[in-house]
Specification:
Layout lengths: L14 H9 L5 H14 L9 H4 L19 H13 L7 H7 L2 H12 L15 H12 L11 H4 L18 H12 L10 H8 L3 H13 L14
Helix pairs in contact: 2-6, 4-5, 4-6, 7-11, 9-10, 9-11
Length: about 240
C-alpha cells in the first residue's frame, strides 16, 4: 500500500464551525477586545511578556524561532494550556510567569481572541528534508506503527494534523522544532500526563529520534490555508 503524504492538504473544517460546536456562543466584542489587549501586554505580564512578541497579533507564530501558531486552535485547548502554565502543571520558564500574571478572565479572553483569528496560509518555503524521512512521518501520521504500539497521529489530530476540537490541537503547519521539542518533552516525562493527554507519554516513549524528526518535519510540511475566523466563548 502506498502511504499518503498530503503535503498540500487543505484545512477542511471551518474554525467558526469548530468553535461553535465547542463553545456554543459567539464571543462578545468586549471579550475579543479584552483578549487583544492581553495579547498586547495588558494582562499583567507587560510588554516584555506580551503574547504578540512571539505569537503575533494574528497568531501566526514564528516558525524560524520555533514559536507555535495559535490562530484557529480551539479556545478550550488554548485556555487549558494557559491554566496549566499558570499552575506549573506544564513547566515552561517563559510561559509560566506570563500565564501566572494574567487573571483567570484574561487567560480566558486571550484564548478566545486567538481562537477567533483565521489561520494564515503557510508562508515561504516549506521545511526541506530527506524524502524518505517525510514519507516515514506521513506513515506515522496515517497508520502509526502496529509493531511498536504507536497509534496513528490522525486518530486524535485529524487527517494531516488539522486538529480535532476541543482537546486535540492542530499540528499542520506548526514549526518542526516546536513539534519535536514537545514530543521529546513527552518522551522524557517533562509534559504532564493527566487526562486527556496521558497516552501521549506512552506514545512518545515508543518513538525513536528518527521517528520524532520524521513526524515533526511531516506536519511542518503540511500546507495550511486561511479559514474563517472562529466564534465562541468559554463559560
Amino acid at each position: 500500500m502506498r502511504p499518503a503524504l498530503p503535503l498540500a492538504l487543505l484545512l477542511l473544517a471551518g474554525t467558526a464551525a469548530a468553535a461553535v460546536e465547542l463553545l456554543g456562543n459567539p464571543p462578545s466584542p468586549r471579550q475579543v477586545a479584552s483578549g487583544r489587549a492581553v495579547a498586547a501586554g495588558a494582562g499583567g505580564q507587560g510588554q516584555q511578556g506580551a503574547c504578540f512578541a512571539c505569537h503575533g497579533f494574528d497568531g501566526a507564530g514564528q516558525a524560524a524561532a520555533g514559536f507555535p501558531a495559535l490562530a484557529g486552535q480551539s479556545a478550550e485547548y488554548l485556555h487549558e494550556q494557559l491554566e496549566r502554565y499558570a499552575s506549573g502543571a506544564r513547566p515552561n520558564p517563559i510561559m509560566q510567569p506570563i500565564a501566572a500574571a494574567m487573571t483567570p478572565d484574561q487567560r480566558r479572553d486571550v484564548s478566545v481572541y486567538y481562537a477567533a483569528q483565521p489561520p494564515q496560509a503557510s508562508a515561504g518555503a516549506r521545511p526541506q528534508g530527506d524524502p524518505a524521512l517525510l514519507q516515514h512521518g506521513g506513515n506515522l501520521s496515517a497508520i502509526g506503527s502496529a509493531e511498536r504500539g504507536v497509534q496513528a497521529c490522525q486518530n486524535c489530530h485529524g487527517p494531516g494534523g488539522i486538529g480535532l476540537w476541543p482537546n486535540y490541537p492542530r499540528l499542520a503547519g506548526q514549526p518542526a522544532d516546536y513539534l519535536a521539542a514537545q514530543l521529546r518533552a513527552w518522551k522524557q516525562g517533562e509534559r504532564p500526563g493527566d487526562e486527556p493527554y496521558n497516552f501521549m507519554a506512552n506514545i512518545a516513549a515508543r518513538l525513536t529520534e528518527d521517528d520524532i524528526r520524521a513526524v515533526s518535519l511531516y506536519f511542518a510540511s503540511v500546507r495550511t490555508v486561511p479559514r474563517q475566523a472562529g466564534t465562541g466563548v468559554l463559560p
